[in-house]
Design goal:
The chain is mainly alpha-helical. The chain contains 3 helices and no strands. The radius of gyration is 12 Å and the shape is globular.
């Protein structure tokens, strides 16, 4: 979460419009929030965002997603 939003539930990536603690793209939020039981909640809602991220992680493991649970990328946070 530190790499995604630095813990800011209102974070929005101006380039991709990814939003919230775990930076959901609008298209991913549309189905994962419903599946996690938070349909209709905004991606900026902390509990909904965390629950949707947990659902997405579990779902990607269950279907053995070709890139692994989220897909590879490198995060080097500076916690100063």
């Amino acid at each position: 979460m530190t790499c995604e939003s630095r813990g800011n539930p209102d974070a929005v990536n101006q380039s991709s419009q990814a939003t919230g603690l775990f930076q959901f793209l609008p298209s991913t939020w549309a189905y994962s929030s419903v599946a996690a039981g938070f349909g209709g909640y905004p991606a900026t809602h902390p509990e909904a965002n965390v629950a949707s991220a947990a659902w997405l992680l579990e779902h990607s493991i269950l279907i053995e997603h070709r890139l692994g649970p989220w897909g590879p990328w490198e995060c080097n946070p500076r916690l100063s």
